[in-house]
Specification:
The chain is α+β, with helices and mostly antiparallel strands and 136 residues long. It has helices at 5-11, 18-27, 35-40, 53-63, 86-96; strands at 44-47, 70-75, 80-85, 104-108, 114-120, 125-132. α4 (53-63) packs antiparallel against α5 (86-96). It is globular. The two termini are 26 Å apart.
Length: 136
């Protein structure tokens, strides 16, 4: 977990939400064990180990450009999740994901048949996968 994550979320007007965590787990197939399989089918794999905060923000902004604006954001290892806006994620990414330490899973909040899943992992790789309704 990023240092002071709970405090950072509180400063953003957010709090960890167990129902959001359950929703994320459900959407990826019922278990964090599904992440490797889903990520293997990603339409984008990117090494972000050399990216600075602005480059990472730019990449995320492009990926989330068509998002509804609300995201479910989860830290699997710590079993913490919160719902936030795209702008909140982009503005605070340097406080919400610590390279080489954390895995961060971002899912669109959507009623569409498919939704975007972005994972930033502790090995500093970004993957972007479109989850179809039948995957959930």
């Amino acid at each position: 977990m990023p240092p002071g994550l709970t405090e950072k979320l509180a400063a953003m007007g957010l709090r960890p939400d167990p129902s959001t965590l359950e929703r994320v787990i459900d959407l990826i197939g019922g278990s964090w064990c599904e992440l490797p399989r889903l990520r293997s089918n990603a339409h984008l794999h990117m090494d972000v180990s050399e990216a600075d905060d602005d480059e990472l923000r730019s990449a995320l902004s492009l990926l989330l450009a068509e998002s509804s604006g609300l995201l479910n954001v989860a830290w699997p290892t710590d079993r913490v999740a919160a719902e936030m806006t795209v702008s909140s994620l982009l503005d605070s990414i340097d406080d919400l994901w610590y390279p080489a330490m954390d895995d961060l899973v971002v899912l669109e909040v959507s009623s569409a048949d498919d939704r975007l899943m972005i994972v930033l992992d502790h090995e500093e790789r970004l993957t972007c996968t479109r989850l179809a309704a039948h995957t959930n």
